[in-house]
């Protein structure tokens, strides 16, 4: 039954050689890693700070700002494509890593703020007050008390932002050419008018699965640690 499937005539690594040694696909994959990593880092850091401020302080116009931030996520990407293209064209950010990172942070920052705000609201204020009574500043209480407790939320936010940025195709197909091109834009190139290079599609997709798998293995323990981590005051 499986004789034909695993015969020497059917098994070949030619597609992997073509994709990873005879094309620019590895550089496109590295572009995705760089752009997505920076997007996750910036979105999580800014989202945590903004989410904490909205959860803890009564800011004048805070709810309006929160709603305005969410509208950037609720709006369809095509609504922002033309304004961004005109601005990026003037600023010479087309087909650059900085331009793509800016786009992805704009698309995911509101979502990051929304998630982190909910996690910080669920953390008792008594933990910070107890730390500040012992002499810690607001920043020290945030860094040493709140962030460790919110580890699960930070990791969950990072994973969601990573998935959104890693799989994004619309902006990448418009704002990149060759230098900052990401792997999702390259995959349709294997679908030609004459045939479909299924071997190349499989080889390229296999490489694209490795970073998310590594992140999942790393984040699994982090999520458990964040959920079980507690602050005990004797």
Structure notes:
This protein has helices at 14-21, 25-56, 62-74, 77-91, 97-122, 125-133, 138-149, 151-166, 170-175, 183-186, 198-228. The protein is mainly α and 234 residues long. The chain has a single domain, classed as MetI-like (MetI-like fold). α2 runs antiparallel to α8 (151-166), α3 (62-74) crosses α5 (97-122) and α5 packs antiparallel against α8. Mean pLDDT is 84; it is low at 1-8 and 228-234.
Helix and strand arrangement:
Blueprint: H1 14-21, H2 25-56, H3 62-74, H4 77-91, H5 97-122, H6 125-133, H7 138-149, H8 151-166, H9 170-175, H10 183-186, H11 198-228
Main CATH class: Mainly Alpha
CATH superfamily: MetI-like
Order of helices and strands: HHHHHHHHHHH
According to CATH, the fold-level topology is MetI-like fold
Determine Rg (CA atoms, Å): 22 Å
Which architecture would the CATH scheme give at its second level? Answer: Orthogonal Bundle
Number of helices, counting only DSSP H or I runs of 4 residues or more: 11
Q: Give the overall average pLDDT.
A: 84
SS strand fraction: under 5%
Poorly predicted runs are 1-8, 228-234
- What separation lies between the terminal Cα atoms? 67 Å
Number of domains: 1
Counting helices, strands and paired strands, the structural category is: mainly alpha
- Summarize the main sheet: none
What coarse outline follows from CA principal-axis ratios? globular
Helical proportion? over 70%
**How many strand units?**
0
């Amino acid at each position: 039954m499986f004789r034909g499937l695993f015969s020497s005539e059917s098994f070949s690594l030619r597609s992997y050689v073509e994709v990873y040694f005879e094309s620019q696909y590895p550089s496109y994959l590295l572009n995705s890693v760089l752009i997505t990593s920076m997007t996750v880092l910036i979105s999580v850091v800014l989202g945590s700070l903004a989410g904490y401020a909205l959860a803890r302080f009564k800011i004048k116009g805070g709810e309006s700002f929160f709603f305005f931030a969410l509208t950037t996520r609720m709006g369809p990407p095509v609504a922002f494509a033309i304004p961004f293209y005109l601005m990026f064209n003037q600023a010479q950010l087309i087909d650059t890593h900085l331009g793509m990172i800016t786009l992805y942070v704009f698309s995911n920052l509101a979502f990051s703020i929304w998630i982190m705000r909910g996690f910080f609201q669920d953390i008792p204020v008594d933990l910070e007050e107890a730390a500040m009574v012992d002499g810690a500043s607001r920043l020290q209480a945030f860094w040493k008390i709140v962030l460790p407790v919110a580890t699960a939320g930070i990791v969950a936010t990072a994973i969601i932002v990573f998935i959104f940025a890693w799989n994004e195709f619309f902006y990448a197909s418009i704002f990149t050419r060759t230098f900052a091109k990401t792997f999702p834009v390259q995959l349709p190139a294997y679908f030609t008018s004459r045939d479909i290079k299924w071997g190349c599609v499989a080889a390229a997709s296999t490489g694209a699965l490795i970073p998310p798998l590594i992140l999942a293995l790393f984040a699994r323990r982090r999520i458990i640690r964040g959920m079980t981590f507690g602050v005990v005051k004797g």
